[in-house]
Amino acid sequence: MFLFVGAVAFTIIACGDKKNDIPEWEWPSPTPTPTPEPDDDVVKPRFVWIDAASNFHDYANDKAKIESDMAKVAQVGFTDIVVDVRPTCGDVLFRTTHTEQVTKLASWAGGQGYHWEERTAEWDYLDAFIEAGHKVGLRVHAGFNTMVAGVSNSLGQLGMAFRDTKYRSWVTVLNTANGLESAMYASSGAKFLNPANDEAMEFLCDLLKDLAAYDNLDGIVLDRCRYDNFMSDFSDVTRAKFEKHLGKTITNWPADVMASGTTTLPSKLSDVQYEWLEFRVKTIHDFMEKASAAVKSVNPKISFGAYVGGWYTTYYEVGVNWASPRFSVVNAYPKWATADYKNYGYADHLDLLIIGAYAGVNNIYGDNEWSVEGFCKQAYNKVMRECTVVGGPDVGNGTGWENGGKDAEVVKSVDAAINACDGYFIFDLIHIKKYDYWNALERGIGQYLRSAQK
């Protein structure tokens, strides 16, 4: 992800559990007009994310562990899981003929230090989560890292772009201080695709169609559906498309757009730079529209969603406008938004938006960004009821979370997030297990459920 989830007397076993006599949240359909506010007695969904690499030690070869952990997830009151089935290497953990299966991932779990975790099992990874999740009443969403094609780290290199020159040609070109260079030769990390490359985007849509064809899969959530950073993409493909968007030729490329090595917004933008920021969000918007159509063409009933960071005020850096197209961005952020920037808000193409409300442990409550509650409030207001919005903390990284022992803050995070938007989200399951936050989550969710019954 950019930046990068007291016991109660009852257990949520299935959606709409009659034992508690509370109807479950119904997903709003994407619509250009506001949907009605939910009734006060509607129980909101609670999501936990399951990163592929971090959890690979437990799940790569062990169906029994998947089953036991999903039972625990449901027991403490979660309603939904997002299981990562396309990690940053670009290969997959679901059925497709378009790329290879994941056979190893770099993991720090399992007490072995940072190491390669191998997968030798032949059973279907995603099917195992669907079966185990549905058995205990969880909805199952497939997490899909989108604009990625490989990863390099201290252990080595892995994935599509390191295996095949065709994929390597799709990787983004960075405008570095040393000039234009492929991200393949940049520092370690995920190797991002160029969102303006039509062939690469068709490839991703083909993968999404195969994913949508899974029997009983409840949803798909796109992660990393964005540019890598402010320095990307400056390829010839992007130049041609930007010049078409602009309606004129750029004489001095890329300097007339951004000076080499620029990583933050200039203090004053030129007309071309305003248009550049607009072009980038249009590019991501147009892909999101195509991706949604591709998924719905296979399964019109499946939930289609995205994960984004809640820091909207700087999300132009990665070329994403996740707000409603009815939200006037230029009025709120005239420093970097054009009048047409709002047209490329993509919330109306989603059923679900997951907000990373990744504030520190001392910033649970608040109204503005960089508090858990504030991230969720701000996102809810910007999305304007186009889709369901859920948000919450990363309880393994960030200020104060990194060493565990924050049970009270976990309880508060449920209250802060779930009452500020349409539901709760937590990253990641491995952190819940590592720091034993099960009881804290059961307390927090239990408090919410009791208040919903009143």
Helix content: 25-40%
The 3D shape can be described as globular
Number of DSSP strand runs? 15
- Strand coverage percent: 15-25%
- SS-based structural class? alpha/beta
Q: Strands of the biggest beta sheet: in what spatial order?
A: 14-13-12-11-5-2-1-15
**H/E series:** EHHEEEHEEEHHEEEHEHHEHEHEHEHH
Contiguous helical run count: 13
- What is the CATH topology descriptor of the domain at 46-303 and 396-453? TIM Barrel
* Rg, Cα atoms, Å: 21 Å
For the largest beta-sheet, the strand count, sense and barrel status come to:
8 strands, parallel
CATH-level-2 architecture of the domain at 46-303 and 396-453: Alpha-Beta Barrel
| Distance from first to last alpha carbon | 36 Å
- Low-confidence stretches are 1-23, 27-41
- At the first level of CATH, what is the class of the domain at 46-303 and 396-453? Alpha Beta
Average pLDDT reading: 92
Characterise the protein shown here.
The chain has an 8-stranded parallel β-sheet. Residues 1-23 and 27-41 have low confidence and may be disordered. It contains 13 helices and 15 strands. The protein has helices spanning 52-59, 63-75, 125-135, 160-163, 165-168, 198-212, 236-246, 271-298, 329-332, 372-383, 407-418, 429-434, 438-453; strands at 46-50, 80-86, 104-107, 115-118, 139-145, 148-153, 156-158, 173-176, 179-182, 189-192, 219-223, 303-309, 352-356, 388-392, 424-426. Helix 2 runs parallel beside helix 3 (125-135) and helix 11 runs parallel beside helix 13 (438-453). It has a domain at 46-303 and 396-453: TIM Barrel (Alpha-Beta Barrel). It is an alpha/beta fold. A hairpin with a 7-residue loop joins strand 3 (104-107) and strand 4.
